[in-house]
Write a structure and sequence with these properties.
- The protein is of the alpha/beta class and about 575 residues long.
- Helix content is about 35%, strand content about 20%.
- The protein contains 20 helices and 22 strands.
- Strands 5, 12, 13, 14, 15, 16, 17, 18 and 19 form a 9-stranded mixed sheet that branches. Strands 3-2-1-4-20-21-22 form a 7-stranded mixed sheet. The protein has a 6-stranded mixed sheet with strand order 6-7-8-9-11-10, sandwiched between helices.
- A hairpin with a 4-residue loop joins strand 8 and strand 9.
- The longest helix is centred in the N-terminal third of the chain and has 27 residues.
- About 50% of the residues are buried.
- The N terminus is likely disordered.
């Protein structure tokens, strides 16, 4: 003890605590060796072992010779940094896993059949207290916009409370029982659409809120179950972290209660979102950083427009397939700017949902205004490097605004499978020239450090499908390009395999202020990794479509095993 006190006298108690932790890390470190390890560090780095400290971080990354004992007892498989999804919806994904899956449905009979199956498996579903929920319908696949009458023709469904989200979750389709709760003469809603032709039943963008206000919300116990389901599924796909693109204040409080518990197996970088999406005042949400890195709250998600599939994305010029229609701004330009400034001055990273080229233009305007206020005497590019404002989706960007993004360094948050899902109708919506010059950029945005993700549950959460789509510009479901072509769609914007992997690791790390901590295997980083049967670089690209992760580890603990 005399020696210990003498050390304390020299280095001080703060340094002593650090010294003690280092000793503990050394004594209790656990070493893992594999057939090979990708670290995301220097290209060609040849390592095959790492040690994990008692605090759940990498403490050492090294190589051993093939004749060493560590090499002889190495685990089967190849380790890479745990993957991150840069834009998903955690609670909604858990709800989706416990609701009606409508993805891929192409007829009304198929949808009704899936709803029937859900009702049979969930007695009591469809009451005024327990609405039937689901997601994944698409009027493009159905051949027409659905209506409440499509449920009313089925004697077993006509009296049930049903609310189903469109594939892009920007529209809801409800049954007559839900319609009957609304006023008979519903006025139009600014920034939204009540679809009245061929009949009532579908509400889009801002028009969904009068219906959502009536929906009986799940309680915290049910939400906790949704979160557990979601995280378990994400771990299966090799995801160790995600950026939650819009969570209201109540749910953020629930996240804080649950973060770090045994079932919380995914790191979450949460963007605050109010129930009315673009609320001005940020006061009820406080910045929060879990000391162990399981929950971070320091960003906000604002909304500029709707989605392309429902003609809701705000365009500078009319849609090519709907003359006179140019989409919807959910708020006007000046209001969007005011709200961006309001959140930015409270210390929040400002991330704006923008799909159409008009929405992207106004999003850039709003972020530039906030940056100028934050850094009045500093070049915008230097200010942006610190605050890292993002545009979520960045789908259709006018050439002039692409130049602005590059000059300032505004981060594009991109979902590669949106390109391969939308390629079936994007050119129909936008026309050839606008598609070629503005839409679904990836490679040309590499210099501004894109964040890659999926937008689950809108798209499958499997990041390897996203990597496949980014590299091939083909659908991971079919392995084909637009209209069944064997060639990828606009492959001039495709990424290399290495670029795509970094987009799902280093991209979210930088976009979430976690570089050096996430998306990399190096001393001091979170000990999060996944194990594959063979290196990604040695696989045929088509293997990514059905790749199954062998193991997933978070904070040095195995949270998923295939075997």
């Amino acid at each position: 003890m005399a020696w210990l006190y003498s050390v304390a006298a020299v280095v001080g108690f703060g340094s002593l605590a650090k010294f003690s932790q280092n000793v503990a890390d050394f004594l209790f470190a656990e070493t893992h060796c594999y057939q090979g390890i990708r670290t995301n560090g220097a290209v060609g780095a040849d390592v095959n072992c790492f040690s994990v400290s008692s605090t759940g971080k990498f403490s050492k990354v090294f190589s051993v010779s093939s004749d060493s004992q560590l090499a002889e007892t190495a685990h089967t498989g190849y380790a890479i940094p745990g993957l991150w999804d840069g834009h998903g919806h955690l609670l909604q994904y858990g709800e989706f896993l416990n609701s009606v899956d409508l993805f891929g449905s192409s007829t009304m009979d198929e949808i009704r059949s899936r709803v029937h199956k859900y009702v049979d498996e969930h007695p009591g579903a469809g009451t005024a207290q327990e609405w039937i929920r689901g997601v994944g319908w698409d009027q493009m696949a159905l051949g027409a916009m659905p209506t409440a009458e499509d449920f009313a023709t089925d004697k077993d469904l006509k009296d049930l409370y049903i609310m189903l989200d469109r594939v892009d979750v920007h529209c809801i389709w409800v049954s007559q029982a839900v319609l009957d709760l609304l006023p008979e003469d519903l006025p139009d809603v600014p920034g939204g659409e009540i679809v009245r032709n061929p009949g009532m039943g579908v509400f889009c963008d801002n028009a969904v809120f009068p219906v959502m206000d009536l929906w009986p919300k799940p309680d915290n116990n049910k939400k906790a179950g949704f979160l557990k389901s979601a995280m378990k599924e994400l771990n299966k796909y090799g995801l160790v972290g995600m950026h939650d693109a819009g969570t209201n204040a109540d749910n953020l409080n629930l996240f804080k209660e649950l973060a770090g518990s045994e079932d919380w197996t995914v790191r979450v970088y949460a963007m605050a979102e109010y129930y009315d999406r673009n609320a001005v005042c940020p006061d009820p949400v406080e910045r929060y950083n879990d000391p162990n890195g399981f929950l971070n709250i320091q960003s906000v998600k604002l909304f500029a427009d709707g989605a392309l599939g429902s003609w809701g994305s705000a365009m500078i010029d009319d849609y090519s397939d709907r003359p006179g229609v140019s989409g919807s701004l959910l708020v006007n330009a000046s209001e969007l700017t005011y709200r961006a400034v309001s959140w930015a001055t409270k210390g929040f990273q400002v991330n704006i949902h923008a799909i159409g080229d008009l929405a992207n233009r106004y999003a850039i305007d709003a972020q530039v205004a906030a940056l100028r206020l934050l850094c009045p005497c500093e070049p915008l590019v230097e200010c942006q490097a610190r605050y890292r404002f993002r545009i979520e989706h960045s789908q259709i960007i006018h050439e002039d605004d692409q130049v602005r993004m590059h000059a300032i360094g505004i981060i594009p948050s991109i979902q590669p499978t949106h390109a391969t899902s939308d390629m079936a109708y994007a050119e129909q919506r936008l026309g050839k020239e606008r598609t070629a010059k503005e839409a679904y950029r990836m490679r040309s945005l590499l210099d501004i450090r894109p964040v890659l993700g999926s937008d689950f549950p809108v798209e499958p959460a499997d990041p390897f499908q996203g990597i496949y789509a980014a590299v091939t510009r083909k659908s991971p479901h079919t392995g084909r390009g637009a209209n069944g072509s064997p060639d990828g769609w606009h492959t001039e914007e495709a990424l290399s395999l290495d670029q795509a992997i970094r987009g799902f690791t280093e991209g979210p790390a930088y976009g979430g202020f976690m570089e050096g901590k996430a998306g990399v295997i190096q001393p001091g980083a979170f000990a999060d990794w996944i194990v594959l049967d063979k290196p990604l670089e040695d696989m045929d690209i088509e293997e990514l479509r059905s790749l199954k992760v062998k193991e997933t580890w978070v904070a040095g603990k195995r949270v998923y095993s295939r075997d």
